[in-house]
Amino acid sequence: MDEQETAELTEDQLSSAGERLASTSTASQAMATRWLGILQRVTEGAVSHRDLHELLQESLVRIREAMEVDYAAVLLVNADGTHLDLYAACGPEEEMIGRVSVPVGRGVAGAIAASGNPMVINDLSRVKIESPLLHAAMKSLVGAPLRLGERVIGVIHLDSARPHRFTDDDSQLLQLLASHVALAIEHARLFEAEHAARREAEIISRHLQALQAVSDVALEYTRLDDLLHALLQRMQPMLGVENVAILLPTPDGHELTLYSVRGPEEAVMGKVHVPMGQGVAGTIAATRQPLVVESLATVPVANPFLREHFHSLLGVPLLAEGRLIGVIHVDTVQLRHFTDEDRQLLQVLADRIAIAIARAQQYERVRQSRTEAERQVAVLREAAARMDEFLSIASHELRTPLTNLAMNVQLMDLWLNADRNQRTDESPEGYTAQAVAKVQPLIQRSHRSIQRLDRLVSDLLETSRIRENRVALQLRRTDLGSLVREVVAEQLQAHATRTVRLELDTQAPVIVEADPERIEQVVSNYLSNAFKYSPPDQPVTVVLQVEGDEARVSVRDEGLGIPASELDHIWTRFYRVAGVRHQSGSQVGLGLGLYISRDIVERHGGQVGVQSTLGEGATFWFTLPLARLEPAG
Ligand code: ADP
Fold first, then answer.
1. Which tens digits make up the pLDDT trace of 63-119?
2. Per residue in 334-351, pLDDT tens?
């Protein structure tokens, strides 16, 4: 609207000038021609420039020439309308451009702006001038307001270095020129505003494009590593930098580690750990503020690689819902002055990236807990399967001796009843010697079945005692040598056909502080396993050694051996090597013997172990600490 008004004003002025021209003399006509010439020259100068400063500078040069004055200057009213700032000048004032600010109402220019009227001062020494420089340089002045309609946007003044009489005509001409200059200023300002708006729009569009690219990537990848890799790959050219790096905090939050890089810093991946609050990334994380470093040589860095390979850096925090997710920084090999726009763009991207990272981390946690849940389900299934297997073995194991017992009892009953029928006079109450002889082995067999049942039930009971930590040891000084000899003799009674080689290091007693019944249980378990899992014609060797302050008992067989992958498992409850068939005897076993043995030995402060190569037999051993010497007397 100002433009419109001003245009009208200018036409008004021109037409009034025209009217005056028509009514004046030839001399006046000459002056009018001069005016029009000047106006034309100044207007031409004004339209050839888009930049406001250049435009005014050029206009002043032309006005100074045309009006044959020494100096010229333009002051513009500042944004809040309180001051006039020196904006363009020809003459001594030139060096003060940008440094002079006159309050509206004060000094000569201030008075012109306040009154809105032109002013002529032929003797400047009589008035108060703000600047001593001007005071010395200028003698006479003509000034006019730069008006757009009612609004004064500045002041133009022309000055003479020697005393000069500026006329009303000069003042009018300057007023006419001022209105043109004001119009040109308005045009230039509009142009600048439009230019700024276009630049702003371009920046927004760039930001949007960058955001779009980042969002596309964020949607495409769910795995954190893939996501960051793809993001950095896009960002590097987008930001025109050689290096982009993302650091994430360690779980304890004390450090940042370099997590993903695109650029030369890849060389130190996995080696960069920045304490919170230190170095560039640590500072960004601690302050949660962006950081621009023009020269990395001038700031402390936690990662010297940055200083050695890059010149400038821009970094921002990665924040999602106020939570610090990490830090992103971009680096250039050459010096770069990162602008506000660069910083804003990186921050906008960082906000998006932070959300994407938080989402990927969440996804990863869900995935991990699902995997963990699946693992636990598998473990439970395995345990359930093991329990089913155990139950079927246990029932089989218990039923075998029970069936034997039942059969023996039936047979004994049968034979004794039959015998009663054949009773003779010599033995009217008793049974015949024949019948007793027949029943005897059945009683012995029943005994063994009962023993076996007893052992199975004891093993089960023992297992639950171990689980509930209710095993009590009756410790006393025990000679391990005699103990081993007795167990071997007992086992040989039950397995009369087997050969056992007994190798005792010493005939002297090997005294340990032990519960003899429990240790017997261990030796007899090792021995019965050796019988079970080796062919009947192969010998079994039992060795007792003293090594330092401990005794070591080992039982070696020449049987199947155990696959290396199973060696750690056989000591666990109910564990039985799949597909292994016992080589002799009928017992199957519940997979408890070694579990119980290990518990007993460890409760005595000893250790168990096994060496075995598949197909070459096995050596099971255990150690016990030797008892301290009994005090003499
Ligand atoms: P089980 O009652 O099944 O023998 P153990 O706990 O005594 O239970 O033994 C666990 C598993 O270890 C056995 O099922 C067998 O597969 C393996 N094992 C034990 N001793 C030997 C051995 N001397 N030779 C080969 N395998 C053995």
1. 998 889 999 999 999 999 999 999 999 988 888 888 888 899 988 899 999 999 999
2. 999 999 999 999 998 999
- Measured from the Cα of 587, ligand 1's closest atom is 2
**Average pLDDT of span 231-238:** 90
pLDDT band with cut points at 50, 70 and 90 for residue 633: very low
- 570 close to ligand 1 (CB < 6 Angstrom): yes
Per the structure, the complete domain to which residue 288 belongs is given by: 218-368
462 shares its domain with 587: no
608 lines ligand 1 (CB under 6 A): no
Please give the share of the chain, as a percent, with pLDDT higher than 70: 90
Determine the pLDDT at residue 338.
95
What's residue 462's pLDDT? Answer: 86
Best probe residue, ligand 1, of 565, 570, 574, 586 (max atoms within 8 Å of C-beta): 570
| Joined tokens for residue 51 | 């930049």
Total domains in the fold of the chain: 4
Residue 588 Cα distances to 273, 308, 408, 425, 593, angstroms? 58, 72, 21, 49, 11
**Ligand 1 pocket residue status of 562, Cβ below 6 Å:** yes
Selection from 561, 555, 554 nearest residue 534 by Cα: 561
Ligand 1 atom nearest 571 alpha carbon: 6
Per mean pLDDT, which of 176-180, 206-210, 409-413, 479-483 is the most reliable?
Answer: 479-483
As a whole number of angstroms, the distance between CA 67 and CA 521 comes to 127
CA distance linking residue 621 with residue 522, whole number of Å: 10
Q: What is the pLDDT of residues 567-582, one digit of tens each?
A: 999 998 877 777 666 6
Q: Is the pLDDT of residue 159 over 80?
A: yes
Q: What CATH number should be reported for the domain holding residue 28?
A: 3.30.450.40
Q: What is the pLDDT of residue 428?
A: 59
Contact indicator for 264, 242 with CB cutoff of 8 Å? yes
Q: Which of 12-21, 458-467, 561-570 has the highest mean pLDDT?
A: 561-570
Of the three residues 350, 368, 386, the one that is the final residue of a domain is 368
Residue 557, ligand 1, Cβ within 6 A: yes
CA distance 151 to 166: 25
The alpha carbon torsion through 67, 72, 74, 75 (nearest 10 deg) reads -130
Which of 6-10, 195-199, 417-421, 422-426 ranks highest by mean pLDDT? 195-199
Ligand 1 in reach of 177 Cβ (< 6 A): no
Query: Which residue is closest in CA terms to ligand 1's atom 14?
Result: 576
Q: List the residue whose alpha carbon is closest to atom 11 of ligand 1.
A: 576
Question: Which residue's C-alpha comes closest to atom 12 of ligand 1?
Answer: 570
Q: Is 139 in the pocket of ligand 1 (CB under 6 A)?
A: no
Q: Is residue 633 part of a domain?
A: no
Residues 463 and 480 in one domain: no
512 Cα: distance to centroid of ligand 1 (angstroms): 27
* Residue 374 structure tokens: 């699946």
- Cα of 397 vs centre of ligand 1, distance in Å, is 15
**264 in a domain, yes or no?**
yes
Q: 522 CB less than 6 Å from ligand 1? A: no
**Separation between Cα atoms, residue 178 and residue 155, nearest integer Å:** 8
Please identify which residue in the block is written with the tokens 């938080």. 358
> Could you tell me the CA-to-CA distances from 227 to 285, 319, 351, 560 in Å, in that order?
21, 17, 15, 53
What distance in angstroms lies between residue 573's CA and the mean position of ligand 1's atoms?
11
Ligand 1 touching residue 245 (CB < 6 A) = no
Q: What is the pTM of this model?
A: 0.49
Q: Is 488 in the pocket of ligand 1 (CB under 6 A)?
A: no
